[in-house]
Amino acid sequence: MPRVLTGLPAKHAAVALALPLLLLLLVGWMPPPISARPSPGPDYLRRGWLRLLAEGEGCAPCRLEECVTPRGCLAGRVHDACGCCWECANLEGQLCDLDPSAHFYGRCGEQLECRLDTGGDLSHGEVPEPLCACRSQRPLCGSDGRTYAQICRLQEAARARPDTNLTVAHPGPCEAEPQIMLQPYDIWNVTGQDVIFGCEVFAYPMASIEWRKDGLDIQLPGDDPHISVQGWTAEI
Fold first, then answer.
1. IGFBP N-terminal domain: from which residue to which, for each copy (predicted)?
2. Which domains does the chain have, with CATH numbers?
3. Among 56, 66, 75, 116, which has the highest number of CB atoms less than 10 A from its own CB?
4. pTM of the model as a whole
């Protein structure tokens, strides 16, 4: 039974009864002591919420005998979030964690690093994504006689075919005899109109190309302003 205070109006008596309840609510919502709060310093901010989530879950004691050996890791292997077992590293072009203390997307493999991809169209408010990128962009020649765009592509091929013992033969593209990849073909044209003939040739060093016009061989590149030659290195 609630106790009624005599000598007070009904309104004041209701207020007096609500005061103990209000005090109890205030006590229940008191903030934790300063020692129980996380430190707002740089280290706390640097770890990020993903790291705090992982710390909240915690890691079990490391038992290497229970680890499963990952297979088919084309970018190599890295330790898991707890630093115990091995797992496959992320390949070039896959999402990754910019914060080394985080472990959400995963870590990049050998010769790879996590960078923000700024090559896309960011004019429409798109946010650049963190992607694994190869540290080197120099082409090189493999021991199989094929040219690779960079060391990361060669290592992927070597791990995909471990029986070939693929290694780096030398920096730069492999020497290759000229091969006509796209042959020119006859074109019907109206007199006075422009016409385009295409001929794609793969070779390293660059092959010498000759065009025959009206029975005359024209060496390319030449000084004819109506003819252009574009050379590039093929990537595998």
1. 55-135
2. 64-119+126-135 (4.10.40.20), 140-171 (no CATH), 176-188+197-220 (no CATH)
3. 75
4. 0.56
CA distance 154 to 142: 7
The per-residue pLDDT of the chain, averaged, comes to 75
Residue 66 Cα distances to 71, 81, 84, angstroms = 16, 16, 10
In angstroms and rounded to an integer, the radius of gyration of the C-alpha atoms of the chain is 35
Residue 67: pLDDT band (50, 70, 90) is very high
* Closest to 54 (Cα-Cα) out of 91, 105, 101, 89: 101
Question: Which helix or strand (DSSP H or E) is residue 202 part of?
Answer: strand 200-204
Q: What is the DSSP letter of 76?
A: -
Which amino acid belongs to residue 179? Answer: Q
Q: What is the Cα–Cα distance from 175 to 142, expressed in whole angstroms?
A: 11
